Each structure stands twice: as C-alpha cells, then as structure tokens.
Amino acid sequence: MPVYLDHNATTPLDPRVLEAMMPYLRDHHGNASSVHSYGRLARNAVDQAREQVAALVNAQSTQVVFTGCGTEANNLALKGVAARLAVGRVAVSAVEHASLLGPARALERQGWIIDTIAVDDQCRVSMASLSEALEDASSDVIKAAPQIVSVMMANNETGAIQDIPAISAQARRVGAIMHTDAVQAAGKIPVDFPASGAHLMSLSAHKLYGPKGVGALIVDKSLELEPLLHGGGHEMGRRGGTENVAGIVGFGAAAELTLNELAVRSAHLRKLRDLLEAGLRELPGAVIFAECAERLPNTVLIGVPGIDGEALLMNLDRKGIAVSSGSACASGSGEPSHVLLAMGVDFELARRVIRISLGQGNTPEDVLRLIAALCEQIDYLQAHT
Ligand code: PLP
Q1: Which tops the pLDDT comparison, 335 or 324?
Q2: Which of 69, 123, 292, 329 is the catalytic position?
Q3: Backbone angles phi, psi at 287, to 5 degrees
Q4: pLDDT tens across 295-307, in order?
Q5: Nearest atom, ligand 1, residue 69 CA
Q6: Distance from residue 100's CA to the centre of ligand 1 (Å)
Q7: Cβ–Cβ < 8 Å for 158, 299
Q8: Quick one: which of 204, 215, 246 has its CA closest to 11?
Q9: Under 8 Å between Cβ of 262 and 298
Q10: Is the pLDDT of residue 141 over 60?
Q11: Helix (H/G/I), strand (E/B), else coil: 247
Q12: What is the pTM of this model?
C-alpha cells in the first residue's frame, strides 16, 4: 500500500465531502444567480456553505468571498486593497508562499515599495524587523509607514506558527491593513478571524479535505476591495463569475467537518508527529527545522547533511512513499527554498531537505515504514555518493 505524506501540498477529498457535493454535480445544475427554483436551490447551497466556512474561522458569513483557490485569495487581498490606495509600501514576511510573494512583486512593478520582514532561525517573524518595517520610510519617494502588512499564520514548509494577534496589533498601530494567509493553518489549528486582528484572511478548501479549485478571502466589513475579476455582482461585487456551486458546497462541508473534528484530528497528528520525530532523532546528523518554534501538528521539515533531498524523495517514491522536497510549487526547481535561506540555513543544507506532512488517514505503521525506508535510503545514498 502506498503511503501519502504530502498533505501540505494537498489532502484527499473526504468521502463525506464528496457525498455532499454529488447532488450539485449530478442533479442540481442551477446558476446561483438565477431567480427561478433551480437558481434558488443553488443559492441556498452557496449560502449554507458561506455560513459553514465563516463558522470555521469565527467570522460572519457576509465577510466570506469565495475565490477559485488560495492563490486567488492572496492576490485579491494584496492587489484588491492596493488598487484602492495611493501607491505606497507593503510589508511582507520573508517566508510567505509564492502566491503572496507573486502579487507583492506585481505591485512592486507598479511602483510600490516592498519591505521584507525577517524571520529568526526558527522561522518566527522577528518583532524587531517588523518594527523596523513599520517605521516611516526614509525613501524620498514615499515617506509613510506601510499601508498593507501580510504575514502568514503558519508556514507551509516548516509548519512554524506566527503570533498573528501581536503582529496585527503592530500593523494596526501604524494604520496598516493586515492580511494573513491561513491556508495551511485552517484545519490543523484553531483559527479565529476576529481574534487574529487581521482585516483579511486567505483560506483554501483542498488543504482541509475539501475539493481543489475553491478558496475564500475573509474580508473585514470596513474594507474597500477592488475585484480582480470584474463582472456581475457576484460575491457582493467583490468577485465576478458564476459560482462553482459544487466546489463551494464541498468547501462548506469540509469546513464544518474540520470544525467539529479539529481536536481529535490534531491529537492524532501530534501523536504521529512525536513518533516520527523520535525516529528522526536517531538518524545521524538529521536536522529538524524550526524545531523550537510552535509548529503545525502535522509538519516536519528535515535535512540530512550530505544527502540530496531530491534523490531521497525519488527513492522513497519508488518504495511507494510520497513526501515533498519543500513547497510543491518550488520542488523540482533545484533551487533551495527561500524559507530556509531566510532562516539563515546554509545554502547546501537548504537544498537537502524533505518535508513530511501527515494527515488524517496516516497510521503509526505509515510512520514506522517511513523511518525504516529513510534509514535504508540514507545508508544507500551515503554509500553511493
Ligand atoms: N498559501 C499557502 C501557505 C499555501 O501553502 C498554498 C498552497 O500550497 C497556497 C497559499 C495556495 O493555495 P491554492 O493551492 O489553493 O492556490
């Protein structure tokens, strides 16, 4: 039996979520904007899902804007807010996902100044660097503090969790709009939109056993947001396009299951992670990154000096074990992860990492199989390189 240990890349669809989606794929084809009974049925389903997704993060349903993915939510947050402001400054952490760094770079091409907030060697945002980024700029062009601050709630590579309420408080102090990418956090730890202090929060269904191709941006009611997709008045004018009803229903079902089962799920993941880390500590020279930070209960990023991460990944794959060499987007590029470089990890070691991300379907046997395969493969690779 293959063993899947790459849940931060994506999770399998929960069969209960599929069951909830099926009527909207098979029978109920109405457009949620139509006023007839077909349309109303679809609209009711979307409205229910909006309540379910809002409940997952303790938000109000009117604050939920459904998007096509977490990437779109991150793009909408940055570009949608920036479009309503005069060109200025955006501060982002050095360890953000590509889907946040990409729109930040796009803003830079429009003249925005991007301030990078440093992290420490445990992948935690440095509060000193944050304060520095929030000070008035000395630039001749722009003298004000950043108008937008974006820091992710949990990192997809290391699993490190940031102190978002503290960071939001600092951002708000200078009048900035605070965004947090909670794509990896939601479903693994409790996420509370009002308590986070953020004005905007990104989510994605496929990281929490929902379908791919649906996400959400939670938006504080006070915010003016320019849509990325102009069109009909969908999503209260914040995102044009006919709603992906089945996908949204799936997101809602996944969110409700997550909320109800979160405590059980994280206890399961924590137990497996402890077993995994006990095994990894026996591997000579193995480093667990961000080990001292508060981390997601399912994520372990390790490096073994002298062992090529990509070769290890391929050899494990041949044995039916799926892990990642970093974030799914960066893997295959051969470049070391920007996250590890930001943490000050040596360039060579940063290229020699594998990420193990556990999920609900994993068992202690899966973990023991991985540890045995790792021992065998590391011996093999050390003997052959
Ligand atoms: N943000 C983080 C932290 C992620 O890990 C990912 C996906 O890996 C995304 C955003 C993008 O989400 P999506 O795959 O739904 O576009």
Answers
A1: 324
A2: 329
A3: -115, 130
A4: 999 999 999 888 8
A5: 15
A6: 9
A7: yes
A8: 204
A9: no
A10: no
A11: helix
A12: 0.96
Shortest-distance atom of ligand 1 to CA 206: 15
Structure tokens at 37: 């009974």
Q: What is the DSSP letter of 239?
A: S
Residue 205 CA: which ligand 1 atom is closest? 15
- DSSP for 331-346 reads TTS-SPPHHHHHTT--
b/e burial code for range 142-171 (CB count within 10 A of at least 16 → b): beebbbbbbbbbbbbbbbbbbebeebbebb
CB of 69 shorter than 6 A to ligand 1: yes
Phi, psi of 90 (to 5 degrees): -125, 135
130 in contact with ligand 1, CB cutoff 6 A: no
Q: Which residue has the least CA distance to atom 5 on ligand 1? A: 156
The number of the ligand 1 atom at minimal distance from the alpha carbon of 184 is 3
Nearest by Cα to 300 from 379, 212, 359: 359
- The mean pLDDT of the chain is 94
Render the burial of 324-353: b for 16+ CB within 10 Å, e for the rest: bbbbeebbeeeebbbbbebbebeeebbbbb
**Running DSSP on this structure, what letter comes out for residue 366?**
H
State which of 13, 76, 97, 179 you would mutate to test the pocket of ligand 1, scoring each by most atoms of that ligand within 8 A of its C-beta.
Answer: 97
Nearest to 88 by CA among 60, 111, 117, 59: 111
Contact 134, 177 (CB under 8 A): no
Cβ of 357 less than 6 Å from ligand 1: no
Question: Taking a C-beta distance cutoff of 8 angstroms, is the pair 172, 222 a contact?
Answer: no
pLDDT digits (tens, 9 = 90+) for 23-43: 999 999 999 999 999 999 999
Any ligand 1 atom below 6 A from CB of 215: yes
Backbone angles phi, psi at 175, to 5 degrees: 80, 15
Tell me which residue has tokens 């391929």.
314
Domains belonging to the chain, first-starting first, are 3-11+263-383 (3.90.1150.10), 15-257 (3.40.640.10)
375 is annotated as an active-site residue: no
Cα-only R_g, the chain: 21
Task: Quote the DSSP letter at residue 328.
Answer: T
